[in-house]
Structures are given as structure tokens and as C-alpha cells.
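Structure request: TetR family transcriptional regulator, Terriglobus albidus.
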Amino acid sequence: MRPSLREDILKAGLKVMFESGYQGASVRDICEAAGAPHGSFTNHFRSKEAFAQEVLDRYFENLQGHIQRSLGDQTLSPRQRLERYLEIISDVLAADKWGRGCLIGDFSLETVSHSKRLRQRLEEIFEEWRAPFAACIAEAQATGEIDNTFDPVDLAEFLLSSWEGAILRMKVERGPAALDRFRKIIFQTVFKEQR
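Returned structure:
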């Protein structure tokens, strides 16, 4: 019995979709990158859309590991945990030489007008992604570490949406300036430490 190529196809698909986007990544390109015959793709995935959702879910699972390492680090204050998350992601983006952004952001730009399934999944991901940030922000507000004028959920939404925008600029500029600017401004304004 021949081994399943499903895992190889998923790994290759992530890479190809980062490089070419959802629309630009053909099933042929994905199979070629995986060293798999085209039939293997159709054996394992009902459609490119279903495949893309699995790739997106895997990407988000990896991102949740970064969230846990930063926001779950109880040795840091809540505000420091938020800073730590942005540092970790900046390091990941630097390792890719500023050329690869966030697949969630990329898919949000590219797929939502073409795929109801992916749009709905992205909406769910944003809600799941926002929750630990809102909890961390609420904790920082409760301890007086940051201002409590705004609702923690709104602040979490603002943080993640603005960060995604900074990542888009980073990809255009192929450098860290937009990320550095964002981090500096947000922690001296919105998440300014209370005296």
C-alpha cells in the first residue's frame, strides 16, 4: 500500500498559498510542490476551497501556539504579554525576510468575496483570535496597568486589525518599519502604562 501524500500536500499548500495567494495557487502548483500526482489532491480534498480551509486552520493552530507562549506567560504583566506577542510575531516575520505576512490577513483580502465558506471560517477565526487578547486587556485594565476607557473586546479588535494593517505595509516595504512604528505608537498611546 502506498503512503498517503495528504500531509505533504498540506505542507506544500501552505507554502504555495503564501507565495502565490489563494487565487494564484493552482492545484497543479500545489501537487508539484508536494511531489504528488494530481489525483492525490482529489483523493484527499473535495475542493480547493476545502483544502484552503484546512491550510488556514493549520496556520491558525500554529498562531495559537504563539498566543499561548505570550499571553499565557504569567511571569509577565498583562501589558508585557501583549508586547511579547508582537515581538514573537515580528521575529517570525523577520525570519521570513519580511516577505511573508499573515495568512489570515492574506485570505481576508483575497477570498471573502469569492468564498462564503472561507469568509465564515475567517469570521470564526477572528472571534477566537480576539478572545485571549480581550481577556488579557481586561486583566490589564482591572489592575490599572492600562486605561479602561474602552471596552476590552473593542481594544482587542483594534489591536489585531491595526496589526494586520502594519503587516500589509511590512510586506510592501519588505522591512520592519511599519511593525516597529505600530508597536511604538500603540504602547505609548492606547496601551500606555498608567502611572
